[in-house]
Design goal:
Length: 448
């Protein structure tokens, strides 16, 4: 890193020393940008780095709600409106006990660059609450969502800020929030994405992040004269992203050999496909059970409190669970066990040490801001359909998503090569995304 980049990062660490996830994300981006700021002195002259690492707006508020027994609870709600240079703020709402301002800043910062890579007119933002929907009744979740939206509505809008779902926020929660927004503002507009198909949602949206990660990995494999056909693929997670990544991998001829949840991992050498994939879908989406039940049903190994990465050999790895789930040691295990490609289906699931291992061993590695951009890309397509009062077919949306992921891969690969690090998708993604945002900020003057 050059003196300018190092200085910005050091100041950020002093100012926000407790926000470790945000600092990790900022360092990962900034250290890629040295060749850009050295070639383009106008970025330093305009203090673009100092401006891009600070949110344009941070909203925090209390969310009081009443449970089914009449007890009153208070949670915290947040919306981080990080950068609007390319379009309305866009990013999910996360409901999970771990949510705090630092985690949402990390997610919102990543979202700026992820949205930039899609080529769609979307800025970056993120929000959520430390509310935990697990174990709550539908009525309790509805009362919470209505209370949250009673404050949040004043900060969002179809042309201002368009939230979506994230961990803990699915179709049920989006529906309750949308209903309350519509009730308050008396407008039916595309203010949220991930909506139900009957009232403005897009086909392929539930599948999009998983499909997109697989499409990106497919392009990395093609660039190395390979494909998914016959490959052993290791997935983590068993939620929305992992489920549909598994479906698309099966379609492309790969064999999914692992899935996991917060309690442990299953390894299925027969492949999680067909009836087994259907069982997993029912287990996680309808019965909301634990992945151990899959192991009991099919007689496969279950590893309590373990992640999949060092448990068996795999050709391709798609971490689809949560941040920092692959350590440096686990990355070494993947390399030792023959892994030839890694694509992040979650947000920053590889630690800096793990990324260093992958890059050091010349393993094609697709960072989350590129590889898991399919979800927000399809949210952007939902926004387009809402604006035009149109509804595209499943095939149309999937084709547009596939094209977007191919273009993201091309832009990352081209930027990496242009700045002297051919094959480094981390640098390529950061540089390609940054240039588009930074140039737009310069065009619009000193407004943020």
């Amino acid at each position: 890193m050059n003196e300018y980049v190092t200085g910005v990062l050091e100041n950020l660490k002093k100012k926000y020393y407790w926000e470790k996830e945000f600092l990790q994300a900022a360092e990962e981006v900034l250290e890629s940008l040295t060749p850009v700021v050295e070639r383009e002195p106008r970025y330093k002259a305009a203090n673009i780095l100092e401006r891009i690492v600070e949110p344009e707006r941070v909203v925090s508020f209390k969310v009081p709600w009443q449970d089914d027994k009449g007890n009153i609870h208070v949670n915290s709600g947040y919306r981080i409106e990080f950068n609007s240079a390319l379009g309305p703020y866009k990013g999910g709402m996360r409901f999970h006990p771990s949510v705090n301002q630092g985690i949402l800043k990390f997610l919102g910062f990543e979202q700026i660059f992820k949205n930039s890579l899609t080529g769609l007119p979307m800025g970056g933002g993120k929000g959520g609450s430390d509310f935990d929907p697990k174990g709550k009744s539908d009525s309790e979740v509805m009362r919470f969502c209505q209370s949250l939206m009673t404050e949040l509505y004043r900060h969002i809008g179809a042309d201002t800020d368009v939230p979506a779902g994230d961990i803990g926020v699915g179709g049920r929660e989006i529906g309750y929030m949308f209903g309350q927004y519509k009730r308050i503002v008396n407008k039916f507009e595309g203010v949220l994405t991930g909506k139900g198909l009957n009232w403005g949602g897009s086909l392929i949206r539930p599948e999009a992040t998983g499909y997109g990660a697989v499409y990106f990995a497919e392009e990395m494999l093609k660039a190395n004269k390979s494909s998914f056909d016959g490959k052993r693929v290791m997935l983590s997670g068993s939620g929305n992203v992992a489920q549909f990544a598994a479906q698309k991998i099966n379609e492309l001829g790969g064999k999914v050999i692992s899935m996991s949840d917060s309690a442990g991992t299953v390894i299925d050498e027969n492949g999680i496909s067909g009836d087994r994939w259907e069982f997993m879908m029912d287990l996680k989406n309808n019965r909301r059970g634990r992945i151990r039940e899959y192991a009991d049903e099919f007689g496969v190994p279950y590893y309590d409190a373990k992640r999949p990465w060092g448990l068996t050999k795999a050709d391709v790895a798609l971490p689809c669970a949560t941040q920092n789930e692959i350590s440096g040691e686990e990355a070494q295990d993947l390399v030792k066990n023959g892994c030839i490609c890694v694509a992040e289906g979650a947000n920053m699931p590889s630690t800096p040490e793990a990324v260093e291992v992958f890059l050091g061993n010349k393993i094609p590695f697709g960072p989350g801001k590129a590889a898991n951009a399919g979800g927000v890309a399809t949210s952007g397509l939902e926004m387009s359909q809402n604006s035009m009062r149109l509804k595209w077919t499943r095939e149309e949306v999937d084709a547009k998503l596939h094209t977007i992921m191919i273009n993201i891969h091309h832009d990352c690969a081209t930027a990496a090569e242009e700045f002297g690090t051919a094959g480094n998708y981390v640098n390529g993604a950061n540089i390609a995304a940054f240039k588009k945002v930074a140039d737009s900020m310069l065009d619009q003057g000193l407004v943020f």
